[in-house]
Structure formats: structure tokens, C-alpha cells
Amino acid sequence: MKKNVFTGTIIIIVFVALNILFSPSSPITSSTLVTASEEIDSVKNQTALDKIPSKKIYEDMQSFNLSSSETMKASLTTEATEKFDEELYSELANLLGNNINKIGLVYYNLTTKEYVTINENMDFDAASTYKVGLNLLYYYYADKGEVDLSSLLTYYDYFYQDGTGILYGYCYSGMEISIQELLDLSIIYSDNIATAILSNYLGGYNSVREQLYSLLNIDYVLYENLLTPAISAQILKYVYDNRELSGFNHLIDTMKITIFHERLDKYIPNNLVAHKIGSIDSYVHDIGFVFTDEPYIISIYTEGIYNAEKTIASMSKVIYNKHTESITQFSINKTIYDKY
């Protein structure tokens, strides 16, 4: 978790002052001031990388503004959040074992801005998680009045793709389908034909990625359908941040009713989860939102892991349990803080 040095400094000063004020046996001395100064310097010099080498900081990611001044929790419970980060990472590392080098993860608390990452900048084939960014782009253009979601697009035989979806069972050359219906099919059923038609309308798969990354200010060398868990998390955060717009709210609702339930939501309440799977060859992924009292983003990518669906489901369960536990603990800590 990225530290806010100024906030951390104020916390320590207040803590020292309160101890001095309410401890008659501890008058202010030069040694007291030296001790306080040493503690402040310690906070300044400490980073998340000191304790968890595999965690990286999003300093170069504009979409992730992790300033602790945005949230009371970050300023009140610095030690508690550090403990949360370390314990969650440790539990995930124990679960994954040697597979830790074959997965990429971003957990991001949308309320507190806390996050834990593993290999977040590793390249993976996006597979069908590409479809979330595709939907994002359409809803962005619709909000700007540049795309009419009720417009009809035409299916031709060259759009045919097998794999996931339902259109392959009844589509025929010349059939017209609305953009909105195609978008819904691409998320609910992960329909590959719907995705091909939608991508073609915006200039093709590469054009979609170029437009999306330009919109989100993502600096990434485009190569086929590759992306990173960090980029995926940025896409999800943009959707969440614009959820008051009807299109993005609809996208989240659509992600909640996907027919796939063997990964992120297998071991946790699936009514809380809005997600999109992706699979191709040895790549197996799932990304989305979990709407607890403090919603969070979860982006998990894997490559070459045996029983990857179960691994993703187990990771999701560990994260959910630790996340909900931290909310409960913060409620207790805040009650104690408010009391005094």
C-alpha cells in the first residue's frame, strides 16, 4: 500500500503528543523529541517493498490515485492496513506455492484505496476479458452521443467464430442485431460472434485496443491480445468511477448475470460479484467487482496452472474473507478512536 508520508508524520506526532499529555510521569524532554524524530524518519524511509518484495507500487498509473488523504481508514489505521496487506499476500503465497510465478493479481479496495498485487505487470493473453474494455468503449461513445446503442449491425458469415456464446446456433448471413443486444451477449454468454461484429464496427480488434488505451491514458505496447492485470484493473476502475452513467451501470449489472460461476464467485456469495471470465489455450482468467460494504476490484490472470478455475476460486475466497475481516476490524478500531 502506498504510504502518504505527510499523513503518517501527523499521526505519529499526534500519538506522541497524546501520550505526553495523558502521562504525568512522562514530562517533555529532549530525549522524547529525539525519539519522536526517529519514529518520523522511520516512516519516511519505509516502503511496502521493505516487507513484501513482490508487491509493486502504482506510482506511474494515473488511474490509481492512492493518496491516503482520500480516506479516513488510511490515516487512522496505518499499522492495521500494513498488517492486512502482509497477511493477505502471505496467505495467497502459501496457497499458490510454486504457481505464484504463473499468476497475476490485482486486489484494489475502492473505498480505502488499499491494494495488493502479484505480478501485476506480467503479460497475459487477455482472452475474453477483452470484452470488458470493448463494452467500456461503446458505453463511452454512447454517452458522448457518438454511438446509438439501438442501431442494428449485420451479421455476415465471415464473422463466424466458435467457442463461447449462443449466436453460432441461430445466426445467418444478413441477420441484424442491435448494438445493445450484442454488448449484452458478449458479457453474459461471452459471445465470440457478437464480439467480432462489435469490434469490426469500431475498426477491428487492434483499433479497439488503441482507442481504449488512448481514452485511459495507458502506455502499453500493443501486441495481439496481450494485456496485464494492472491494465485490466484500470479498465474496471474506469467502469466503477463512471457507474452513475446509465451505460456503465448497465455493464456492471450485466456482469452480475453472466452464466459462468466456476471462478471468482464459486466460493463466495455470487450475488455480490460482477465479473467476466476469459479462457484460451492454457490461459484462464476472471476479473470483476465484489460489492461488499467496501467494494473491491479483483483481477486474476493465470497461465499454465493445473485446475486453474479452482485456483482462481480459492484465491477469491481468501481475498473475500480477509477483506470482510478487515472491514469488521476497522469498525472496531474506529469505534475506539471515536470514543477518545
Secondary-structure-derived class? alpha+beta
Residue runs with pLDDT of under 50 for 5 or more positions: 1-76, 331-340
Taking all Cα atoms into account, the compactness measure Rg is 23 Å
What is the overall pLDDT average?
Answer: 81
How many domains, in number, for the residues? 2
Shape: globular
What's the CATH superfamily of the largest domain, by name?
DD-peptidase/beta-lactamase superfamily
DSSP E strands, number = 9
Strand percentage lies at: 5-15%
- Give the terminus-to-terminus CA distance: 27 Å
Describe the largest sheet. Answer: 5 strands, antiparallel
Question: What's the order of the H and E elements?
Answer: HHHHEEEHEEHHHEHHEEEH
Per the CATH scheme, the topology name of the largest domain is: Beta-lactamase
Strand order of the largest sheet: 2-1-9-8-7
Task: Give the fraction of residues assigned to helices.
Answer: 40-55%
Please write the CATH class name of the largest domain.
Alpha Beta
Please give the CATH architecture of the largest domain.
3-Layer(aba) Sandwich
DSSP helical segment count:
11
